[in-house]
Write a structure and sequence with these properties.
Strand order of the largest sheet of chain B: 1-3-2-4-6-5-10-11-9-7-8
Number of strands of chain B: 11
Structural class of chain A: alpha+beta
Oligomer: heterodimer
Shape of chain A: elongated
Strand content of chain A: 15-25%
CATH topology of one domain in chain B: Amidase signature (AS) enzymes
CATH superfamily of one domain in chain B: Amidase signature (AS) domain
Structural class of chain B: alpha/beta
Radius of gyration of chain A: 30 Å
Order of helices and strands of chain B: HHHEHEHEHEHEEHEHEHHHHEHHEEH
CATH class of one domain in chain B: Alpha Beta
């Protein structure tokens, strides 16, 4: 029998707030262990949580971005369980009244080839709620160590409906969420830094049926590859079980990158009773309608909406929009440049090819962030204008671009200081062309014998004589005129 | 001279210090000497640090000499229940699990006491994590009642009440979750106040039940308690349940005329179990207020009988969660031999907590179980709303409600410790106050035939502390014998 997988994801994302969810301590990745704590984070006797409103507004914005229904009241519950990384012995979370309900996330499935756009569809969301992160455990021999730096960091949990039908869709869902949240500026979503983490609920069913099979929760899908591989493994495991006539047990399994396999953690019978109850230390926060409306007004355009607009407004191809649009920085940079000089295609090409290349060459590992790029959008636009007006050649433009990247100077300054302006002085050009003709009788003879391509050799000589500054199309014209003379 | 200083009220000490008739060092020395001499009998304190208290007193004297006294209580000693956070001091909460814990931070109340220049003197004994009504649940030792060393001082703030009654400190801080300030104040013949929920920041108070806990003052007189509450009260950004309402002048309101004030009498508080002598003291107070021109109004608080079961569900639920942080991982007692994380939690907590704490954690865990949540916790919250409504309706008719504080005078030690239900019922008159979030004061209504104090309670509406101070101050002025102190040798 042929089976089809049904997948739901629970995605945790750390918000980038100044202080933690319920404490004043700050957080940033990579600090020395237990240096980003305070009495509240460590749950010392007598300490109390105070909610970080910035995190609440950010979560509301995420909900608005995905079209969720926003709760009227922000209410907090305690999720009680013992674990060494949880300082209070409970996690402050939202149980029955999440901040955001429903909504959808638009995803793009992989296309038939990299340069061909894939199908888009909307994945249904169940809810988005806000909670606090826990600390981090590590093990050294017989000892377990705990670092509470991460404890208390605002964490949103985005829960999808079982509405994805391949590991590719799951991967696209994660990518779409990351794009949107980074666009919003509320999260960095770097999975390698634990800023985005993913659990998946996977079940399979006979292809064509509509019911849901027994679901298995997969935890620890905390790398980009883990999401795809873990889900693929689990689908294959379930198919094999059913093919052998066995049944699937409802359970929680852990993905192990090292083994490339999932392992059982606990069965349904051993599931926790978290004894949720409203946190008596925190008062529910009632939202002002005007505040939600204000936040709605501040929402950025979503990447896929931007892509559609870029097709329409700038007539850019998918190969370009698929590079520029997923990144708000590049999109904004592009539009800023287009405002200065209206040649969107040339500007987009320069960004998607040359700028991206230089940024990645600039640092050994990864790429230089766009914010640190020295070329201002208006300078990039000016460079395109120079090329269009013929004041420099495309070849020279390449050099100018690299110098702009290194120095941040305006193209006009570089061109002027180094005398790079394309030579369009007809008298000088004629002299150089004549010199080339005089000194190279062989190609001249070939050309006159009807071998038109022989003119290229002469053009090359003129470019050498002009030190590359001659306008190639003018040289072509001039040579033809001179050669036609008897 | 030094003995005399110990028998002064905080208000009197304030005047003496202001007039530079005595120094803070002299005052503090007097209390230290008396404590060192007599506390071995009373056992009010778990920890004291005389050198530290004297250093604070010296700093106070220097301030005053430079004309920079911080307020009326600058240089006046105050004892703190050992479940409040003071930098560098113990915060055992009466539990072995925090035996070696030293607080690295000051709670908000502590900061306010320090900002007022008060001399923090002595960490008072309590029932473990404030669970109890006799101080016998302290993991360290029970405290004795200064009026009868074989009797209980009440609890859970038994150490705080005994310290004031024994004149080891003129003032003390306690915490009241279901009567833990008022019942010991009653047993020890002093004044104890449970402020309105949210009036005093809970930041720095080891939580028992977050929705019920409130810090409050204990002193010999209503005026002293009002002076101390003046320092403690106020909004705090660190406590989300703190009320952002200006603090009125409590001391200034004491002298107002009480004529025409309406005082409610609820038969619901005068039924079976109330001792005859306490009932007689209550009747005497009713007669006093009547004579003073107050209007006595019969009111009904029909859900009173449900308060004790509701309280023990809500308290146990919140406590079971609040005490989860004492897990053996960071700063608590940790069991020496453990095999894994779960074993570490289980053994550290089994060794660190006493029986009453375990009883309530188990009860709270049970009522929060997802299968029983609706039947217990949710239902209890609904009844709590009814109890709150009882008071809201009552306070439409009256300015204050007069009740006994406890059904009896202080019971003998050991009398109830093995019967938790009997112990719980001792708080029947104080528990509804916390469920409703209103304020209450216990004051000495006189003495029994065998010389034990009999506390009475005056309850006020939300933020009506001034009203109940005014009314109880009037009673106190007319009954100077209520401020009598026990004799200790």
């Amino acid at each position: 029998m042929e089976y089809e997988p049904v997948i739901g994801l629970e995605v945790h994302v750390q918000l980038k707030t100044k202080s933690k969810m319920f404490a004043r301590a700050p957080y940033h990745f990579g600090a020395a262990p237990n240096t980003l704590t305070d009495p509240v984070v460590l749950a010392l006797p007598g300490t109390l949580p105070v909610m970080n409103k910035e995190a609440i507004w950010q979560t509301v914005q995420v909900g608005l971005l995905f079209g969720c229904k926003i709760a009227e009241v922000c209410k907090w519950d305690r999720k009680n369980y013992f674990y060494p990384d949880s300082p209070k012995g409970y996690q402050i979370s939202q149980f029955d009244q999440p901040l955001c309900l429903g909504g959808t996330v638009e995803i793009e499935l992989p296309g038939p080839a990299r340069n061909i756009e894939g199908v888009h569809r909307h994945v249904q969301l169940t809810r988005i709620h806000l909670e606090e992160d826990v600390g981090k455990l590590s093990h050294q021999g017989a000892d377990s160590l705990v670092d509470f730096n991460r404890a208390g960091v605002p964490l949103i949990e985005i829960v999808s409906e079982p509405d994805m039908y391949s590991s590719d869709e799951a991967f696209s869902f994660l990518t779409a969420i990351r794009m949107a949240l980074v666009y919003l500026g509320v999260a960095d979503c770097d999975m390698e830094k634990g800023q985005m983490r993913c659990d998946a609920n996977v079940s399979i069913r006979p292809k064509g049926s509509t019911g849901l099979g027994t679901k298995v929760e997969i935890k620890n899908l905390n790398t980009i590859s883990g999401v795809r591989n873990g889900i693929e493994f689990e689908i294959a495991r379930q198919v094999e079980l059913l093919n052998r006539g066995e049944t699937i047990v409802q359970e929680t399994r852990r993905w192990s990158i090292e083994d490339g396999a999932t392992f059982s953690m606990r069965s349904k019978e051993k599931a926790h009773d978290y004894r949720y109850f409203p946190d008596p230390d925190l008062m529910p926060l009632k939202f002002e309608k005007t505040e939600v409306e204000r936040l709605h007004g501040l929402l950025p355009e979503l990447p896929f909406d931007k892509q559609r607009r870029f097709y329409q407004a700038y007539d850019l191809p998918y190969t370009i929009t698929s590079v520029i649009c997923p990144d708000k920085g590049f999109s904004d940079y592009f539009e800023a440049a287009v405002k200065c000089y209206n040649n969107p295609k040339a500007i987009a090409n320069l960004i998607a090819n040359d700028l991206l290349r230089e940024l990645s060459l600039a640092v050994a590992d990864g790429a230089l962030p766009l914010e640190e790029c020295k070329i201002k959008p208006e300078h990039l636009a000016a460079l395109v204008e120079c090329i269009d007006k013929g004041s420099i050649s495309r070849q020279i433009a390449q050099d100018v671009f690299i110098q702009m990247f290194k120095t941040g100077q305006a193209p006009a300054q570089i061109i002027q200081e180094q005398g790079l302006e394309q030579n369009s002085d007809l008298g000088a050009l004629e002299a150089m062309c004549q010199q080339a003709i005089n000194e190279n009788p062989h190609p001249v003879a070939e050309y006159k014998a009807g071998k038109e391509k022989a003119i290229n050799a002469l053009k090359g000589k003129v470019m050498v004589l002009s030190q590359g500054k001659a306008n190639p199309s003018l040289v072509d014209e001039m040579l033809k005129t001179l050669l036609q003379k008897p | 001279m030094s003995q005399d200083l110990c028998f002064k009220t905080a208000a009197e000490l304030s005047h003496l210090l202001k007039d530079k008739a005595v120094s803070a060092v002299e005052v503090t020395t007097a209390f230290i000497e008396r404590t060192e001499r007599l506390d071995p009998q009373v056992k009010a304190f778990l920890n004291t640090d005389a050198a530290n208290a004297l250093a604070q007193a010296k700093a106070s004297d220097e301030r005053r000499a430079n004309g920079g006294a911080l307020g009326p209580l600058d240089g006046v000693p105050v004892a703190l229940k050992d479940n409040t956070a003071v930098i560098g001091q113990s915060m055992t909460s009466g539990s072995k699990i925090l035996k070696d814990y030293i607080s690295p931070y000051d709670g908000t109340c502590t900061q306010k006491l320090k900002a007022a220049g008060m001399v923090l003197w002595g960490r008072a004994n309590l029932d473990e994590f404030a669970m109890g009504s006799s101080t016998e649940n302290s993991a360290f030792f029970p405290t004795n009642n200064p009026w009868d060393l074989k009797a209980s001082p009440g609890g859970s703030s038994g150490g705080s009440a005994a310290a004031v009654a024994a004149s080891f400190a003129p003032l003390a801080i306690g915490s009241d979750t279901g009567g833990s300030i008022r019942q010991p104040a009653s047993f020890c013949g002093i004044v104890g106040v449970k402020p309105t929920y949210g009036r005093v920041s809970r930041y720095g108070l080891a939580s028992l039940a977050s929705s019920l806990d409130q810090l409050g003052p204990l002193g010999y007189t209503v005026e002293d308690a009002a002076m101390l509450l003046q320092v403690m009260a106020g909004h705090d950004e660190r406590d989300s349940t703190s009320l952002n309402v200006a603090v009125p002048d409590y001391v200034g309101a004491l002298q107002a005329n009480i004529k025409g004030k309406r005082i409610g009498i609820a038969q619901d508080y005068l039924g079976e179990g109330l001792a005859d002598n306490v009932r007689a003291a209550f009747e005497k107070a009713v007669q006093f207020y009547k004579a003073a021109g107050c209007e006595l109004v019969d009111i009904s608080l029909p859900h009173t009988a449900l308060a004790v079961p509701v309280y023990y569900i809500i308290l146990a639920a919140e406590a079971s969660s609040n005490l989860a942080r004492y897990d053996g991982v960071r700063y608590t007692h940790r069991s020496a031999e453990v095999s894994d994380a779960i074993d570490l939690f289980a053994k550290s907590r089994a060794e660190g907590f006493g029986p009453e704490v375990k009883r309530r954690i188990i009860l709270g865990t049970y009522v929060l179980n997802s299968g029983y949540y609706d039947a217990y916790y949710l239902r209890a919250q609904k009844v709590r709303t009814l109890i709150r409504r009882d008071f809201a309706l009552a306070f439409k008719q009256v300015d204050a409600i007069l009740t006994p504080t406890a059904p009896t005078v202080a019971f003998k030690q050991g009398a109830k410790v093995n019967d938790p239900l009997a112990m719980y019922l001792n708080d029947i008159y104080t528990i509804p106050t916390n469920l409703a979030g209103i304020c209450g004061v216990s004051f000495n209504g006189g003495f029994s035939a065998d010389g034990m104090p009999m506390g009475l309670q005056l309850l006020g509406d939300v933020l009506a502390e001034s009203t109940i101070f005014n009314l109880t101050h009037a009673f106190e002025k007319a009954h100077p014998e209520a401020n009598k102190r026990p004799t200790l040798a």
